[in-house]
UniProtKB/TrEMBL annotation:
It comes from Anaerobacterium chartisolvens. One of its GO terms (biological process) is DNA-templated transcription initiation. Belongs to the sigma-70 factor family. ECF subfamily. Keywords: Sigma factor, Transcription, Transcription regulation. It holds the Pfam family Sigma70_r4_2. Gene3D superfamilies: 1.10.1740.10, Winged helix-like DNA-binding domain superfamily/Winged helix DNA-binding domain (1.10.10.10). InterPro entries: RNA_pol_sigma-70-like, RNA_pol_sigma-70_dom, RNA_pol_sigma70_r2, RNA_pol_sigma70_r4_t2, RNA_pol_sigma_r2, RNA_pol_sigma_r3/r4-like, WH-like_DNA-bd_sf. Residues 23-89 form the RNA polymerase sigma-70 region domain. This is RNA polymerase RpoE-like sigma-24 subunit. Residues 125-175 form the RNA polymerase sigma factor 70 region 4 type domain. The lineage of its organism: Bacteria, Bacillati, Bacillota, Clostridia, Eubacteriales.
């Protein structure tokens, strides 16, 4: 049975333990999925998920009854992920799946011949390096838009930035990736 955000907040006001349990049960997979996409490892994603829920639980009492919980959960999760990425500077894996279940590496052509496999592997590595070299904000915008499949408006709300700024970050990020790929001889301008 799906519990509404309003009912979660109401339940929390009546019985904090049950409200927190409802919040956790409703959003644990969502938070873990986002954390896993940013960290690439199960252990780090579980740690981040725990940190996110600790933050959510601590501030749950300040919510108004008609408050929409999902954007708040998303923002806390993304902020924790941004902090993790900034602190750890992990690499981005092309094995990560997008919203539709496909992997980033599927967008890079492959063939069964040895030569083409080597070329494809080099392109994947080059793409990973290009994404990892992006400044934090540009990388986050690119990952949210292209890996998470979010619309521009969703990226704007998640990153707490104006829509124009998000579009600028995406443009800069794509340009940097394109320039990197051109330098590596993968992209012809």
């Amino acid at each position: 049975m799906e519990v509404s955000d309003i009912n979660i907040v109401k339940k929390y006001r009546g019985n904090a333990h049950q409200g927190l349990e409802l919040l956790y049960n409703k959003y644990k997979k969502y938070v873990y999925a986002i954390a896993y996409r940013y960290t690439g490892t199960k252990e780090d994603a579980l740690d981040l998920t725990q940190e996110v829920f600790i933050s959510l639980f601590k501030s749950m009492g300040s919510l108004k009854e008609d408050f929409s919980v999902l954007p708040w959960v998303r923002r806390v999760t993304v902020n924790r992920c941004l902090n993790f990425v900034r602190d750890k500077k992990d690499t981005v894996s092309l094995n990560q799946t997008t919203e539709d279940g496909s992997e980033m590496q599927e967008f890079i052509p492959s063939d069964e011949s040895t030569e083409n496999r080597v070329v494809c592997r080099d392109i994947k590595e080059c793409m990973e390096r290009a994404i990892n070299e992006l400044p934090d904000r540009e990388r986050m915008a690119v990952l949210l838009r292209h890996m998470k499949g979010m619309k521009y408006e969703e990226v704007s709300k998640t990153m707490n930035l104006p829509l124009g700024t998000v579009k600028t970050l995406l443009h800069k990020g794509r340009k940097i990736i394109k320039e990197h790929l051109a330098r590596e001889g993968v992209w012809e301008v």
